[in-house]
Write a structure and sequence with these properties.
The protein has 344 residues and is α/β, with parallel strands linked by helices. It has two domains: 204 residues, 3-Layer(aba) Sandwich (Rossmann fold), CATH 3.40.50; 96 residues, CobW-like, C-terminal domain (Hypothetical Protein Yjia, Chain: A,domain 2), CATH 3.30.1220. It has ten helices and 14 strands. The chain has an eight-stranded mixed beta sheet with strand order 3-4-2-5-1-6-7-8, sandwiched between helices. Strands 12-11-10-13-9-14 form a six-stranded antiparallel beta sheet, with helices on both faces. Strand 7, helix 8 and strand 8 form a beta-alpha-beta unit. The chain is globular and about 55 Å long. It starts with 11 loop residues before the first helix and ends with a strand. InterPro entries: CobW-likC_sf, CobW-like_C, CobW/HypB/UreG_nucleotide-bd, P-loop_NTPase, Zinc-reg_GTPase_activator. Pfam families: cobW, CobW_C. It comes from Microbacterium murale. This is G3E family GTPase. It catalyses: GTP + H2O = GDP + phosphate + H(+).
């Protein structure tokens, strides 16, 4: 499903600058999301951050920091505010925040441990009011270094997979938390395994949820419109041992791509394979365009937008999902190239 069929007259990076950036924080049960949220709510970071919390009752907040504890939006002493979504819909609470737009620098949304981040991310594609005022900055996934491999080895009865691997697949940035509970070799093995699921996400390590917030907030990782500190080289697929249920495939293509052909192909591809396509992201050289275009997608939803970045040497698309066929994807993308010259 194409949700941006026309090329904007203003580069998307410029148009998005006025929007409130949103970070979606996800992670399996026990990964440390609540600890990280408390770090955001109490740290002296100088940012006015609205934290939207799914499990408000589980967050231990010092009462001395809370102003008006019975209100939907709770003010914190460091400039943050905590928003309870248990009584309202995400779109409603975001629209409420629009009224406070001049007092908010960014938004952090924490999903519950068993939640699929897909519906939250899709909100920023399909709701016009939300898209007008907010932009999805990054999906950040926390993993518990002590238990993540056990979770990845567990399959649901229905055979679809498990939430832990799905959350990793959606991530733009992965935080390997609780590294103090495992060895350095364990961390290296875990990181390699995570990259087998999602090669394009940058990775960080942390203890007790103590993360440098500049590494997860304001990184423009979702649409690749900015440089990401610590980001892995997502353009190259150098991981060959993948999880049996999820994998990532990178396709590179020289020459310039026809925008109309690319959009037609994306429409057809997601219609046929959208259920298995968790994330699609990349940057392409478009024939006749002054700027390169960023491609981003979640299941059946996708977008192709111009972005004010240097022209890449080649077009690159990264697919994350199930049953990915590299040969077929490469051939189909090649059919969109004005001058079909394959790389390597």
């Amino acid at each position: 499903m194409n949700i941006d069929v026309s090329t904007p007259k203003v580069p998307r990076a410029t148009a998005d600058a006025a929007k409130i950036p949103v970070t979606v924080l996800t992670g399996f049960l026990g990964s440390g999301k609540t600890t990280l949220v408390n770090h955001v709510l109490t740290a002296e970071h100088g940012e006015r951050i609205a934290v939207i919390e799914n499990e408000f009752g589980d967050i231990p907040i010092d009462n001395a920091l809370v102003i008006g504890g019975d209100e939907k939006i709770i003010e914190m002493s460091n400039g943050c505010c905590l928003c309870c979504t248990a009584r309202t819909d995400l779109i409603d609470i975001l629209n409420t925040l629009v009224e406070r737009k001049d007092k908010i620098d960014r938004v952090l949304i924490e999903t519950s441990g068993m939640a699929d981040p897909n519906p939250v991310a899709q909100t920023f594609f399909v709701d016009d009011d939300v898209a007008e005022h907010f932009r999805l900055d990054a999906i950040v996934t926390l993993v518990d270094a002590k238990h993540i491999e056990q979770h990845l080895d567990e399959l649901q009865v229905d055979g679809v997979g498990n939430q832990a691997s799905d959350q990793i697949a959606f991530a733009d940035r992965i935080v390997i938390n609780k590294v103090d509970l495992v060895s350095a070799s364990d961390v290296e093995r875990i990181e390699n395994r995570l990259r087998g699921i999602n090669q394009s996400a940058g990775t960080l390590t942390s203890e007790h949820g103590q993360v440098d917030l500049t590494q997860i907030l304001g990184i423009s990782a979702f649409n690749r419109s900015g440089a990401n500190p610590g980001e892995n080289d997502w353009l190259h697929d150098d991981v060959h041992e993948h999880e049996p249920t999820l994998s990532s495939v990178s396709v590179e293509m020289a020459g310039q791509i026809s925008l109309d052909a690319l959009r037609d192909w994306l429409d057809a591809h997601v219609a046929a394979h959208g259920d298995d396509l968790y994330r699609l992201k990349g940057i392409v050289r478009v024939a006749g365009a002054e700027l390169p275009h960023v491609v981003q997608g979640i299941h059946q939803l996708w977008d192709v937008i111009p972005v004010d970045l240097p022209e890449p040497a080649v077009s690159t698309l990264v697919f994350i999902g199930r049953n990915l066929d590299r040969e077929s994807l490469t051939a189909e993308l090649a059919a969109c190239v004005v001058e079909q010259v394959l790389v390597g």
